[in-house]
Write a structure and sequence with these properties.
The chain has a 15-stranded mixed beta sheet that branches. A four-stranded antiparallel beta sheet has the order 16-15-13-18, with no helix packed on it. With 342 residues, it is of the alpha+beta class. The chain is globular, with a radius of gyration of 20 Å. It has six helices and 19 strands. 20% of the residues lie in helices and 30% in strands. It binds zinc ion (ZN). The site of zinc ion has 5 residues, from loops.
Length: 342
């Protein structure tokens, strides 16, 4: 039987107009015995129509989406809305406030916690609320990411492909409406991820990796802001002005063998730049050992043909850190779906 959430809110999901409030998650600690973690949420509703759920801060150190959604909450005029937008700019709120990927409270990675459990700690409780309370109201879910502190991306919007072709079609339509320069299809939908959990419920879903390095990319922030308005218009939720989208290039990520991981601990010297097209067997980079200058650097190689769309941002690596991953041309991937395991 479905467990009830303990999270409560004064926001009324059925009320017309613009409301900005908080999800109150009970959290009893020494500083605050009967305290709550107050997670921001906004609801903009006008009459009947589809519901878009726009979320950022799934990982706390990914900022373009967080800023774009705060701007959208302030800017959106409910009189020009038909239907509803539910907006959570800092979903893993403790992580967002600390500027880190995972929760400083329980170490929880929200994007590995779905469908969540209200009895297994703060991050699981947030996932459970999203999955059991918000998702049943939603027609389109946007989950806005970035590379965070450890990765740098050639920015792209994306969707996660599930097993239902009709849902995949609606996701692809939303992705196209968003209109990023690169539109990438992940050829899998891990149900521990927020998009995978949404797709499982038959919700169209898109997102993106809009920058990285723990910073804010100005041009991508502008693209995210404009893309969100275009997507809301595509859904029939927003009746206001939008800017024309740039031409998009469809790409896909067939599996985890399009990733390269550090073969040793040390300082990573990349052999490629973001946007380079490489072949299987090409050099990805070397790990150097500055504590032992005579030791020969250890190389690592790409396992597949593809374009480098992501590279590790900090130079120091441990064995097993992702140092690069690739995409291939076309939304269909050109290869069978690979293993997940992120
Ligand atoms: Zn992320």
């Amino acid at each position: 039987m479905l467990k009830p959430t303990r999270i409560w809110t004064e926001v009324d999901y059925e009320k017309n107009g613009k409301q900005s409030g908080w999800l109150m998650l009970p959290h009893s600690v020494t500083r605050s015995a009967y305290g709550m973690i107050a997670i921001p949420i906004a609801v903009i509703k006008n009459g009947n129509g589809p519901t878009a759920f726009l979320m950022a801060g799934n990982h706390g150190d990914e900022y373009e989406g967080q800023i774009a959604l705060c701007k959208l909450i302030r800017a959106i005029d409910p009189a020009r809305v038909q239907g509803r937008a539910i907006v959570m700019p800092a979903a893993n709120f403790p992580a967002a406030m600390a500027g880190v990927r995972v929760s400083p409270i329980d170490g929880g990675n929200l994007n590995r916690c779905f469908p969540g459990d209200p009895d297994r700690g703060v991050t699981q409780e947030i996932a459970h609320y999203i999955d059991s309370v918000l998702f049943p109201m939603v027609d389109l879910f946007a989950d806005l990411h970035s590379g965070g502190a450890s990765l740098a991306y050639l920015p792209f919007a994306h969707m996660h492909e599930g097993s239902d072709p009709a849902v995949n079609r609606r996701s692809l339509d939303a992705l196209t409406a968003f209109g990023a320069e690169y539109s990438v299809v992940w050829k899998h939908a891990d149900e521990r991820f927020a998009p995978g959990a949404a797709v499982k419920r038959g919700i169209a879903c898109m997102g993106g990796e809009f920058g990285g390095g723990g910073s804010v990319n100005r041009s991508m922030l502008a693209n995210v802001e404009q893309g969100l308005w275009r997507m809301l218009k595509h859904m029939g939720i927003w009746d206001g002005p939008t800017q024309a989208a740039p031409a998009t290039r469809y790409m896909s990520i067939p599996g985890i063998d399009y990733h390269v991981h550090a073969p040793d601990a040390g300082v990573f010297e990349p052999a490629t730049n973001l946007g380079d097209w490489v072949k299987a067997g090409d050099l990805c980079g070397h790990v150097h050992f500055v504590d032992d200058p005579m030791r020969t650097p250890v190389p690592c190689y790409f396992k597949r043909d593809g374009m480098v769309i992501c590279q590790r941002h900090p130079a120091r690596v441990e064995r097993g850190d992702c140092v690069a991953h690739q995409v291939v041309a076309g939304a269909d991937g050109g290869a069978p779906a690979g293993r997940t395991g992120f």
